[in-house]
Amino acid sequence: MAGTNSERIMLAEGPAIILVEPQLGENIGMVARAMANFGLVELRLVKPRDGWPSDKARAAASKADHVIDGAIVYDTLEEAIADLNFVYATTARSRDGFKPVRSPVTAAETLRHRFKAGEKTGILFGREKSGLSNEDVALADEIVTFPVNPAFASLNIAQAVLLMSYEWMKSSLDDVHAVPFDAPEQPMATKDELIGLFDHVEEALDARGYFHPPHKKARMVENLRAVLSRRAFTTPEIHVVRGVISSLDRFSRRGQRAPAVPVRGDEDTDTDGDASGE
Amino acid sequence: MAGTNSERIMLAEGPAIILVEPQLGENIGMVARAMANFGLVELRLVKPRDGWPSDKARAAASKADHVIDGAIVYDTLEEAIADLNFVYATTARSRDGFKPVRSPVTAAETLRHRFKAGEKTGILFGREKSGLSNEDVALADEIVTFPVNPAFASLNIAQAVLLMSYEWMKSSLDDVHAVPFDAPEQPMATKDELIGLFDHVEEALDARGYFHPPHKKARMVENLRAVLSRRAFTTPEIHVVRGVISSLDRFSRRGQRAPAVPVRGDEDTDTDGDASGE
């Protein structure tokens, strides 16, 4: 699955990101970086305040040069969206009007669906200070808003672009719980290996008088086995644990003798408790 | 539902965000802002390079002062996580070892589950240049990684914190498709209102000779009704549309006469086409 996802997310396709009158070149650069992180490339700028191209934008883009180089500047929002079929407006506050309001997940699913159907789509992001005007929003088909903390709802423009780009990427995954790489595959231990561990530990402890008093031994073994089997060991993990036991069992500390008095199980653990936990 | 969600997301609770040897105060500030956006407050800093407190951090936090003021500095990662029960390490690349790797969605669900069970949790984020070391990762329970574009995988630290904070917030929602506010509730139009619109439009057009030639009228009306009913109008929308029709029907352009020659339906539309679209 990881391989399949990797191939798919190399695609540099998806909605255009349209910044309406962005003010700071740094923000445009961070937008470009966020887009590149999630495979988007098409950046459109409506009247960037400090002009274009922008050295500050390029520096802040952290090598997302392909997005910066491909950015196109427009005089009006109408021109910037002229070739698109479907447009979302991002906004943090409720607007009067007839536009449906969608969550980022719903919006990304809709954009993916329309993308697959061959439509050209875009997402509008507003000015740093004031967001999108009602006139800007009126040009969009639907509104998307973020589930932010109402007491601290103002998202930086690059953060807003990041969240939509991230949801766009996620909408390409068959399973949002999938990961692109995983820990090295390890075979789960067999019961034979687990019982070998039990025997190893119990023999080494028995040799030290750990199971004391003798009439409690059965219960102590039961608790110990519960602890050792609480989580499913892999075969390599069993090997590591047995290596630890062997080292403790067979060798003294360097320059020290093994202790003369046996360490008993009833001295440092509550052996009447349930070691398997809750 | 919006009300319920708003109450819940006012809670300033959740995993601690732990930055391991962050370098730039600006980044710490942007992290604080991202946390505040999604209701997280507990920021821990392990050996911030440029010291603490930081004016640059405060400025970049854009008024997330409660997060900045509450930040605690530690000398070691071990101390920073000492009181926690469960810790995620964020990393963009595969690591050797036994740690399970989770998606942000899975990680947020796990954190929410453990939070509800009364556990204290945290998420580790690495240095700007080099991320988390293998020794850092070894102190975590599991790894979380982002579904980024493999060709441009490096996330800014504040962007990474934003994504995890966002998923944390989403994990509190019963439905990721829910939105905190919606367009004003409008009653859907009744069929009676829709037929009233049909009659209004058709009468106004008929008075102008639009339905020409007469033997095509039935088909033209059919197509026109398909267009008008393609999307479900609300009652206020019907009122707006009927107001438009009335204005066009009853008044001339200011200073102009109504045109002498009737505009016919067959002159500017393909009335044999299927106006209902595909």
What topology emerges from the helices and strands here?
Two copies of one chain form a homodimer.
Chain A: H1 2-9, E1 16-20, H2 25-37, E2 43-46, H3 55-60, H4 65-70, E3 72-74, H5 77-80, E4 86-90, E5 101-102, H6 104-116, E6 121-125, H7 134-138, E7 142-144, H8 157-170, H9 191-206, H10 217-229, H11 235-250, H12 265-268
Parallel strand pairs in A: 1-2, 1-6, 2-3, 4-6, 4-7, 5-7
Helix pairs in contact in A: 2-8, 6-8, 9-11
Q: How many strand segments of chain A?
A: 7
Please state the structural category of chain A: alpha/beta
Looking at CATH, which topology of the largest domain in chain A would you report?
Alpha/beta knot
Helix content of chain A: 40-55%
Kindly provide the name of the CATH class of the largest domain in chain A: Alpha Beta
Please identify the oligomeric state.
Answer: homodimer
Would you identify the regions of chain A where 5 or more consecutive residues have pLDDT less than 50? 1-10, 267-278
Count the DSSP helices of chain A: 12
Strand order within the widest beta sheet of chain A: 3-2-1-6-4-7-5
Largest interface: A-B, 61 and 61 residues
Can you identify the CATH superfamily of the largest domain in chain A?
A: SPOUT methyltransferase, trefoil knot domain
Region (Disordered) (chains A, B): 256-278
InterPro entries (chains A, B): Alpha/beta_knot_MTases, RNA_MeTrfase_TrmJ/LasT, SpoU_MeTrfase, tRNA_m1G_MTases_N
Biased composition (Acidic residues) (chains A, B): 267-278
Pfam families (chains A, B): SpoU_methylase
